[in-house]
């Protein structure tokens, strides 16, 4: 509401009589801030701060998501001064934006918005994860897939068993964006179980996913290949002013790629930029406008390189270039300029929306008022808004004809020294219109007349010397429109004192942190005294036991400066909890202050883990509560271990989620007749604690087997034999004693099964011998399981052929070998004559060796029907010998005659140099220096020009026998080009990539580093265009 002139005069008069501060509109002292609270937190109250000073004292109201909060109806809200307290906040009804309104008769101001959000982290689903099989040298990505959550997360991975965590290096990388684990090149030491660990940064809750087994395939080692970028930042990423931006980049490849960064515009990085995780993370602290732009991540190894690009854009809430301010002297007219940086013109409010009229105009954020009157007095706010938030600027327009109190003519003394018991007079005489009324504060406490104080004088009572040491006195002067203050210091230095004030009852700290400071948080325990007196500062515990200050004990006392006397405890542990006392002594007095230090940590191990009831698939497990380490236990998890598992594994339980008040659970989905151990892990808000000691080993009861053998097959053997093979059932799936196999078979087309029993649980095959077996005849076979509890299921039916009559008797003819390159030879032959009645020809074996390797030749196999094989990985310029033979299930036949071939010399190691380009319209002319082969290298027969678009398009190849080439390339695209020499021994080394940008003019030229002299290129070149089959 607005004040009439009568009300204004009346309030001024009342204020003068009462000696209180006089009229001014509300001004925020504190505004609400965003808050994120854990779901189900122990602290059931959330407070949004809002405090404004003004006279009369402001009244407060609040809005949630733009709607007023009715405090008279809503019992879950309390108003404490201006602070809004949300009691037992709930995610569904209390999430959103809160805003405070402070109002007095002079006007209303609106605070910034504050958001209330709820953080939580649910458990992973307990389903098992499939094994990942890769070749040695291959790259792999293990997915985390975090469970439902809100709030920031951090990720880690456990290798096999806690606490063995995966250490990140140039070969391994954990993305903090997705949680996935990336291994650039798998090594044999990487084989094992990997478990994703997800931690909520807000709640400190931690959950573990199911293990993912990583296994090596047995079909060879992965060769070298160029980098493949798997982790890259978005193409466009907005970043807030002042934030810390982290860009991730990681590539798979063999050899392991090296990661480097650069700006696309070529500008160097400022010194504030950090590279972390072996170059995998680019960190930009304190993001500013000049940090915006395009960034590139380069992944490179000996096989090639790849590039990922993205652009950082700058954003921020509105930033004021010019603020409105309180008017010190009121004239006949007023102009207020309110200008934010860049966004649309701001809005000006006055106790709600401003009513514009002929004498009140608003244009581009400038407010103009002519013919001012007392009725115009009030609070004004300028509001600027963009998509990232709001910004407010507040000011007060006082009544006409007033001026602020001014101390320039009658300044106060900065320091007054006095003895205890004396009477001190402190003058406060400013100039002001109307005449100002003075009031005093001691620190933040208003001084009132009470026998020791009266306005204008401050007597120091000798009967209360302990209460009077050092004062900071502030004189406040105020009239109907303005308020001013001046500060004076009063010193009575007779005894030591603690400037930190009274210590709190309790200090709480998380285990593993470092506490540095005095007893009250943010108020270090420091001593002051007259310079001529010597102080002794001592810390001890309440036992009493004096603290030994040393690096071994973790205690350190700071010396010198404003932090002198602070006690620092490094790497706080549970043992550091207790009461601490700080004692300051001088020659005349001593003072002390005490505080309790409570160290909160993850729970200790539960105790007395017992297995009370056990069946074939379940076990009843109980335990006793361990120490909670000053943070209540919220949940338990049960882990199991068998002789067949890789360490401890999370067990499936009923109930699925075990709360902190439950000390028993049923473990389900166990395997029958397996020896188990169990242990229990407790968790609280800090995180998961130490596991308990294992229970005694117990064995589940027996049951009928449920899993038949896998990989049922067979064939081969000697004449009149039927060979049946299978993969034995693992011991943990045999479900009891007396385990064996039931083998059933029958000729194809016969209805009756022939059965036999194999009593050995480790047997992988059975051979049936009978003279009546026809060579290479089809049989249907299946294999079942049994134990002392009964028979289990059979495997699916498979078709197996009986043994063939004999191995091949003829050798392949017309064998020929010729060299393809410096590392490859092709061997070919004619198929041997074969009849189906003679059996089934499986294929051919090619044996090859060099001189001196006759005793250990190498071999390759090809299937029947193929009459050629390529030998790879050979040494250059060396004679190789080869022979071929056919084979079937009965064995191998005779070798062919031996043939010879010599591998070619290696291609040149020198790449084409000085690659220069010249572009006209849609044609690009290239030239380069001739490559000259060395004596031990193959002669150059021509060149290949490889080119692709800058956007990683398909690779194309142009072959030529000259040192120049002409390409027809559209001007709308940029291209990357490189050149290789071609020889009989293969392609030579690649030139450095040449980047041809998108052409905007009809004539352009360039080279890999700088523009050079362009050699003339023939416009008519014999060339062959082909598409490359390998990615570059």
From TrEMBL:
<feature type="domain" description="Ig-like">
    <location>
        <begin position="122"/>
        <end position="208"/>
    </location>
</feature>
<dbReference type="InterPro" id="IPR036116">
    <property type="entry name" value="FN3_sf"/>
</dbReference>
<dbReference type="InterPro" id="IPR003961">
    <property type="entry name" value="FN3_dom"/>
</dbReference>
<feature type="region of interest" description="Disordered">
    <location>
        <begin position="985"/>
        <end position="1009"/>
    </location>
</feature>
<dbReference type="InterPro" id="IPR036179">
    <property type="entry name" value="Ig-like_dom_sf"/>
</dbReference>
<dbReference type="InterPro" id="IPR003599">
    <property type="entry name" value="Ig_sub"/>
</dbReference>
<feature type="signal peptide">
    <location>
        <begin position="1"/>
        <end position="18"/>
    </location>
</feature>
<feature type="domain" description="Ig-like">
    <location>
        <begin position="227"/>
        <end position="313"/>
    </location>
</feature>
<feature type="domain" description="Fibronectin type-III">
    <location>
        <begin position="811"/>
        <end position="906"/>
    </location>
</feature>
<dbReference type="GO" id="GO:0005886">
    <property type="term" value="C:plasma membrane"/>
</dbReference>
<feature type="domain" description="Ig-like">
    <location>
        <begin position="26"/>
        <end position="117"/>
    </location>
</feature>
<keyword id="KW-0449">Lipoprotein</keyword>
<dbReference type="InterPro" id="IPR007110">
    <property type="entry name" value="Ig-like_dom"/>
</dbReference>
<feature type="domain" description="Fibronectin type-III">
    <location>
        <begin position="605"/>
        <end position="703"/>
    </location>
</feature>
<feature type="domain" description="Fibronectin type-III">
    <location>
        <begin position="708"/>
        <end position="806"/>
    </location>
</feature>
<keyword id="KW-0336">GPI-anchor</keyword>
<keyword id="KW-0130">Cell adhesion</keyword>
<protein>
    <recommendedName>
        <fullName>Contactin 3</fullName>
    </recommendedName>
</protein>
<keyword id="KW-0677">Repeat</keyword>
<dbReference type="InterPro" id="IPR013783">
    <property type="entry name" value="Ig-like_fold"/>
</dbReference>
<keyword id="KW-0393">Immunoglobulin domain</keyword>
<dbReference type="InterPro" id="IPR003598">
    <property type="entry name" value="Ig_sub2"/>
</dbReference>
<feature type="domain" description="Ig-like">
    <location>
        <begin position="405"/>
        <end position="598"/>
    </location>
</feature>
<keyword id="KW-1015">Disulfide bond</keyword>
<dbReference type="Pfam" id="PF00041">
    <property type="entry name" value="fn3"/>
</dbReference>
<feature type="domain" description="Fibronectin type-III">
    <location>
        <begin position="907"/>
        <end position="1003"/>
    </location>
</feature>
<dbReference type="GO" id="GO:0098552">
    <property type="term" value="C:side of membrane"/>
</dbReference>
<keyword id="KW-0472">Membrane</keyword>
<dbReference type="GO" id="GO:0007411">
    <property type="term" value="P:axon guidance"/>
</dbReference>
<dbReference type="Pfam" id="PF13927">
    <property type="entry name" value="Ig_3"/>
</dbReference>
<dbReference type="GO" id="GO:0007420">
    <property type="term" value="P:brain development"/>
</dbReference>
<comment type="similarity">
    <text>Belongs to the immunoglobulin superfamily. Contactin family.</text>
</comment>
<comment type="subunit">
    <text>Interacts with PTPRG.</text>
</comment>
<dbReference type="GO" id="GO:0098632">
    <property type="term" value="F:cell-cell adhesion mediator activity"/>
</dbReference>
<keyword id="KW-1003">Cell membrane</keyword>
<keyword id="KW-0732">Signal</keyword>
<keyword id="KW-0325">Glycoprotein</keyword>
<feature type="region of interest" description="Disordered">
    <location>
        <begin position="689"/>
        <end position="718"/>
    </location>
</feature>
<dbReference type="GO" id="GO:0030424">
    <property type="term" value="C:axon"/>
</dbReference>
């Amino acid at each position: 509401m607005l004040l009439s002139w009568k009300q204004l005069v009346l309030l001024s008069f009342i204020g003068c009589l009462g000696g209180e501060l006089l009229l001014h509109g509300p001004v925020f002292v504190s505004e609400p801030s965003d808050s994120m609270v854990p779901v189900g937190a122990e602290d059931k109250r959330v407070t949004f701060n809002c405090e404004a000073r003004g006279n009369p004292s402001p009244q407060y109201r609040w809005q949630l998501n733009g709607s007023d909060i009715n405090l008279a109806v809503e019992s879950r809200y309390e108003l404490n001064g201006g602070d809004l307290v949300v009691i037992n906040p709930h995610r569904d009804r209390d999430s959103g934006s809160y805003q405070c309104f402070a109002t007095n008769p002079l006007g209303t101001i609106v605070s910034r918005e504050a958001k209330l959000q709820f953080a939580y982290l649910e458990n992973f689903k307990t389903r098992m994860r499939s094994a990942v099989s890769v070749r040695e040298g291959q790259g792999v990505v293990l997915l985390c897939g975090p469970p439902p959550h809100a709030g920031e997360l951090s990720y880690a991975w456990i290798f096999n068993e806690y606490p063995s965590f995966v250490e990140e290096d140039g070969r391994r990388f954990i993305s903090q964006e997705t949680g996935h684990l990336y291994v650039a090149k798998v090594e044999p030491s990487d084989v094992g179980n990997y478990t994703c660990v997800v931690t909520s940064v807000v709640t400190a809750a931690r959950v573990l996913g199911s293990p993912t087994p990583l296994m090596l395939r047995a079909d060879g080692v992965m060769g070298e290949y160029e980098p493949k970028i798997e982790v890259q930042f978005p193409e466009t990423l907005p970043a807030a002013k002042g934030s810390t931006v982290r860009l991730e980049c990681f590539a798979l490849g063999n050899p392991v790629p090296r990661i480097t960064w650069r700006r696309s515009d070529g500008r160097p990085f400022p010194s504030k930029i950090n590279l972390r995780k072996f170059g995998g993370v680019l960190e930009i602290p304190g993001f500013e406008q000049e940090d915006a732009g395009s960034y590139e991540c380069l992944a490179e190894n000996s096989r090639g390189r790849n590039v990922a690009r993205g652009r950082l854009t700058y954003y921020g809430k509105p930033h004021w270039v010019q603020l409105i301010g309180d008017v010190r002297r009121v004239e006949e007219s007023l102009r207020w300029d309110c200008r934010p940086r860049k966004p649309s013109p701001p809005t000006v409010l006055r106790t709600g929306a401003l009513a514009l009229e002929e004498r009140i105009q608003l244009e581009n954020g400038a407010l103009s008022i002519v013919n001012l009157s007392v009725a115009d007095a009030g609070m004004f706010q300028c509001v600027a808004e963009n998509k990232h938030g709001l910004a407010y600027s507040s000011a007060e327009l006082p009544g006409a004809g007033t001026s602020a109190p001014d101390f320039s003519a009658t300044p106060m003394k900065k320091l007054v020294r006095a003895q205890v018991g004396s009477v001190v007079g402190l003058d406060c005489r400013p100039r002001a219109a109307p005449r100002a009324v003075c009031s005093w504060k001691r620190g933040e406490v208003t001084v009132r007349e009470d026998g020791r104080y009266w306005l204008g004088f401050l007597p120091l009572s000798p009967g209360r010397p302990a209460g009077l040491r050092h004062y900071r006195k502030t004189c406040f002067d105020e009239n109907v429109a303005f308020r001013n203050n001046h500060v004076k210091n009063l010193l009575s230095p007779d005894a030591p004192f603690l400037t930190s004030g009274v210590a709190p009852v309790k200090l709480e700290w998380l285990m593993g942190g470092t506490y540095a400071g005095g007893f009250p948080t943010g108020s270090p325990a420091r001593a002051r005294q007259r310079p001529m007196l010597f102080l002794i500062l001592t810390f001890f515990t309440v036992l009493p036991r004096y603290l030994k200050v040393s690096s071994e004990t973790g205690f350190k006392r700071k010396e010198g400066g404003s932090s002198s006397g602070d006690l620092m405890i490094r790497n706080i542990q549970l043992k550091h909890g207790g009461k601490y006392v700080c004692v300051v002594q001088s020659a005349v007095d001593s003072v002390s202050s005490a505080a309790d230090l409570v160290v909160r940590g993850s729970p200790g191990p539960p105790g007395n883990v017992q297995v009370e009831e056990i069946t074939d698939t379940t076990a009843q497990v109980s335990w006793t509560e361990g120490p909670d380490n000053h943070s209540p236990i919220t949940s338990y998890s049960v882990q199991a271990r068998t002789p067949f598992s890789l360490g401890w594994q999370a067990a499936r339980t009923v109930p699925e989620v075990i709360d902190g008040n439950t000390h028993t659970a049923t473990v389900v989905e166990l395997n029958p007749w397996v020896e188990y151990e169990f242990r229990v892990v407790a968790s609280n808000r800090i995180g998961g604690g130490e596991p308990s000691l294992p229970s005694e080993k117990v064995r589940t009861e027996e049951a009928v087997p449920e899993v038949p053998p896998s990989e049922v097959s067979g064939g081969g053997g000697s004449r009149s034999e039927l060979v049946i093979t299978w993969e034995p059932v693992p011991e943990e799936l045999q479900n009891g004693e007396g385990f064996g196999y039931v083998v059933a078979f029958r000729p194809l087309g016969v209805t009756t099964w022939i059965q036999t029993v194999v009593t050995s649980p480790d047997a992988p095959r059975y051979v049936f011998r009978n003279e009546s077996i026809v060579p290479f005849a089809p049989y249907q076979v299946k294999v079942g399981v049994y134990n002392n509890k009964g028979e289990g299921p059979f495997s699916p039916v498979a078709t197996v052929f009986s043994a063939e009559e004999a191995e091949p008797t003829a050798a392949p003819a017309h064998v020929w070998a010729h060299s393809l390159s410096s590392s490859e030879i092709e061997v070919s032959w004619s198929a041997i004559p074969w009849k189906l009645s003679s059996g089934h020809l499986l294929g051919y074996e090619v044996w090859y060796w060099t001189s001196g390797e006759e005793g250990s030749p190498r071999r390759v196999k090809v299937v029947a029907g193929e009459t050629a094989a390529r030998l790879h990985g050979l040494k250059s310029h060396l004679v190789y010998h080869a022979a071929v033979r056919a084979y079937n299930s009965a064995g191998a036949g005779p070798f062919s005659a031996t043939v010879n071939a010599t591998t070619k010399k290696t291609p040149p190691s020198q790449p084409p140099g000085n690659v220069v380009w010249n572009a006209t319209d849609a044609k690009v002319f290239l030239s380069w220096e001739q490559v000259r082969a060395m004596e031990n290298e193959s002669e150059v027969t021509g060149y290949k020009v490889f080119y692709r678009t800058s956007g990683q398009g398909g690779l194309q190849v142009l072959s030529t026998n000259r040192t120049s080439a002409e390409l027809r390339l559209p001007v709308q695209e940029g291209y990357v080009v490189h050149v290789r020499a071609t020889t009989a021994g293969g392609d030579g080394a690649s030139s450095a990539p040449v980047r041809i940008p998108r052409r905007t003019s009809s004539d352009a030229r360039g080279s890999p580093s700088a523009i050079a002299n362009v050699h003339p290129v023939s416009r008519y070149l014999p060339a062959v265009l082909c598409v490359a089959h390998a990615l570059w």
